[in-house]
Amino acid sequence: MTERYRTRIAGTGSYLPEKILSNHDLEKLVETNHDWIVERTGIHRRHIVAEGQATSDLALHAAQSALADAKMTPQDLDCILFCTVTPDQPMPASACFLQTKLGCRNIMAVDLNAACTGFLYGLTIADQMIRTGFYKNILVVGAECISRYINYKDRETCILFGDAAGAWICSRTSESDPNVIMTSHLHAEGSLADLLQMEAGAARKPLTQEVLDRGEQFMKMKGREIFKNAVRTMATTCKEALSATNTPMGQIDWMIPHQANLRIIEAVADQFDFPKDKVILSVHETGNTSAASIPCAFEMGKSENKIKRGQLLLLTAFGAGLTSGSMILRY
Ligand SMILES: CC(C)(COP(=O)(O)OP(=O)(O)OC[C@H]1O[C@@H](n2cnc3c(N)ncnc32)[C@H](O)[C@@H]1OP(=O)(O)O)[C@@H](O)C(=O)NCCC(=O)NCCS
What we know:
By secondary structure, this protein is an alpha/beta fold.
C-alpha cells in the first residue's frame, strides 16, 4: 500500500527589528495624529529595519528560532520558500542568501511573490510538496523590509506598514497525525492590481531620475477600495475553508488574520459572529508586515500563552494582486 503523507508544523519563529516607529514619530513626518491612526487602524507602532540590514537578515533570525523550536538543524532542511515583495535585490532570490547564511545543504531555494497572502501561498506549496513525498522538511519564510518602499510623505500609506520576518518549518508526518494542515484555498484577482502596487523599479518602468522624482518607486494604494475588497475576499475564502472541512466556525480555537487594519479584521470576524477575543492580534505592535504578518501574529499568540498544540486555527489573508487565501490547520 502506498504511504500517504501529511504536513505538520514542526517549529515556528519570528523576528521584529529593534527600531520602533511610533504614531507620535509619524506626527513629525506627516499631518496625522496618534488618535486618528489608532481609531482608523488599531496600529500604535511598527518596527523598522536597521540601516545596512536587508530582508534575508530579518529572515535569518526568524528561521533560526523556527529551527530551534523544531529541534532541527539547517542540514535537515530540503527546501526554502521565501515569501516576500521586498527581496534583498531583484536577483538572485533572497532564499539563496538565506540558504547560505543559515548554512544549509545545496537545497532548493526560491522566492514567492503573493504580497500579503504570500505566507499562505508558501505554506500551501510546501504542503503539496510534502504530501507528494517530494520533500520532508520545508522552511517557509515570510519576511519584508517594506519601509524601504514607503514614501514617508504619504500619510495614507506610511502609517500602515512595518518590517518583520516569520518562519515555519513544515514537516512530513503520517496520515494518522491529527495535527496537520487540513485545507487551503488561494485566489488572485489580477484585474484589481491597480488598487495596491509599486509601479516602478522593474521591467515595465525601470528606475530613471524622472521616475524617482515623481516617487513612482513607492507603494501606492487606494485605501477605501482595498478595505472593502479585503473584507469581501477574506470572508469568502474563510467560508471555503470551513465548508471544505465541514467545520462549524464555533470549533475554531483561534482565527489568525492578516494584520492590515483592526477594523478590517473585526469586520471579517463579525461576518461569522466570531468572538473578538478568539482573534489573534499583533497589528497594534507591528502594523502591516505583508508576508510576515501571519507568522508574527501567530508567534505573539503563542508567547501570550493563547495558541497551544492541538488547537484548530483558521488563517486568512489578502494582499496586492489582489491575492487572497485561507487555511485551516490543527497545530
Ligand atoms: C488607509 C485607511 C486607514 C484610511 O482610513 P479611512 O477610514 O478609509 O479614511 P478615508 O480614506 O476615508 O479618509 C478620511 C479622512 O482622513 C484623512 N486621512 C487619511 N490618512 C490620514 C492620516 N494618516 N492621518 C490623518 N488623516 C488622514 C483623509 O485625507 C480623509 O480626509 P477628508 O475626509 O478631508 O478627505 C483605510 O482605508 C485602510 O486601512 N484601508 C486598507 C489599507 C490596507 O489594508 N492596505 C494593505 C492591504 S494588504
